[in-house]
Amino acid sequence: MKINCIIVDDEALARRGLEEYTRNIDFLEVKGVCKNAVQANMLLKSEQVDLIFLDIEMPLISGMDFLKSLNNPPKVIFTTAYSEYALESFAFDVVDYLVKPISFERFLQAVNKAYRLLEGNKVEVIKPVESKQDFIFVKVDKDFVKIKYDEILFIQGMQNYVMIFTATNKQMVLVPLKSVLEMLPADRFYQVHKSFIVSLEKVNAISGNQLVIGEHKIPISRDKKDEVVKLLMENKILKK
Fold it and tell me: Could you tell me the residue ranges of all domains in the chain?
């Protein structure tokens, strides 16, 4: 299987380095090399592209904003000098996130993953494969910490930060609440207030306009209370 790809980066040296790497991978075929997202946008209109190597911080429009603008985008591997975008990138369902300088070993790992995903898409037409992921990775200080869905009680948003509460501790993460919500399964987590997401299965009771989760009381937005009660009943967490 051949993977048609394009390289999008505002740095000439980075573009040349990625292009050199692709020449060593027999299943990659470069359809274009672009110095910004505007050029990439034009190229996507004329070429069938399966995979984009996409820088994030670029002039005119960032890689993330460009990706948001696309309907049914190709698979994406972010290539950037900035590690702080890693958590936010998970919300875009990207293949991988490579931090410059990129070693060939790390590049090969990412493109092999893309190959498996694209090859799997053909199989899924016949037999869909159900995702078994039951965790998220969050960046705490300089480390990435794995938190299982089952461990999360609720998440509180504080401007550009969130605090993730579990039964045993809490983790402060530099990421908007909206981005965290997009990473969580909708059948298990619900935003009950502009500042709170809760794990539905961890709710013990409703007290007035608050949810009780262990020793914590979480406010419910007035316009969401009926929907919250309905969800809890559908999940057999509350009884009529």
Answer: 3-124, 135-234
